[in-house]
């Protein structure tokens, strides 16, 4: 819908990995961060600037906007630290939510293996969920069967008791 020349619709990137992931965004970020930590230098090799941006996004997500007063002073020769800090400062006021989204999208852009990894993780999660449901269903059926057996046993016991009382009455009469 367009009002006063402005659209109130959100533009959604159909290639966005967050749209394809059917689970919580925080869960997706945790998986992406874990993948980054475990596979950097193995499955993919980000450039210096790409790595600094990924680290800056994790800092933004964890700590929020860069605050000079809380920051630990950097040494004069800490070039990497200065570059990472500048990348963090450049993120300015993006929210933790946006930082998570950008981290996942950036990782997806620089590492083609990441999407395959996510598919494998999703399949694993779905398989675990399927097994959990099957297990619950089996437990439920077992409980129903036990309950049915218990009810039948109680009915048999009552029948036996009635039969014995009838026999006793018959014998006494």
UniProtKB/TrEMBL annotation:
GO molecular-function term, one example from the UniProt record: fatty-acyl-CoA binding
Any one Gene Ontology cellular component term annotated for this protein: Golgi membrane
- Annotated ACB domain ranges read 25-116
InterPro entries (UniProt xref)? Acyl-CoA-binding_protein, Acyl-CoA-binding_sf, FERM/acyl-CoA-bd_prot_sf, Golgi-PI4KB_interaction
Q: Where is this region: Disordered?
A: 152-173
Q: Write the protein's name.
A: ACB domain-containing protein
Q: Give the originating organism.
A: Euroglyphus maynei (Mayne's house dust mite)
């Amino acid at each position: 819908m367009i009002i006063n020349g402005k659209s109130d619709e959100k533009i959604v990137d159909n290639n966005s990995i967050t749209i394809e992931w059917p689970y919580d965004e925080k869960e997706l970020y945790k998986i992406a961060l874990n993948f980054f930590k475990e596979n950097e230098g193995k499955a993919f090799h980000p450039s210096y600037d790409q790595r600094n941006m990924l680290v800056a996004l994790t800092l933004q997500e964890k700590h929020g906007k860069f605050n000079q007063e809380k920051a630990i002073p950097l040494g004069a020769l800490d070039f990497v630290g200065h570059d990472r800090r500048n990348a963090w400062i450049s993120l300015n006021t993006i929210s933790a939510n946006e930082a998570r989204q950008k981290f996942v999208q950036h990782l997806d852009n620089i590492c083609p293996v990441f999407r395959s990894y996510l598919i494998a993780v999703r399949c694993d999660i779905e398989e675990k969920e399927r097994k959990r449901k099957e297990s619950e269903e089996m437990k439920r059926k077992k409980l129903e069967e036990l309950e049915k057996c218990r009810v039948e046993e109680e009915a048999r016991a009552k029948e036996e008791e009635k039969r014995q009382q009838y026999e006793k009455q018959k014998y006494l009469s």
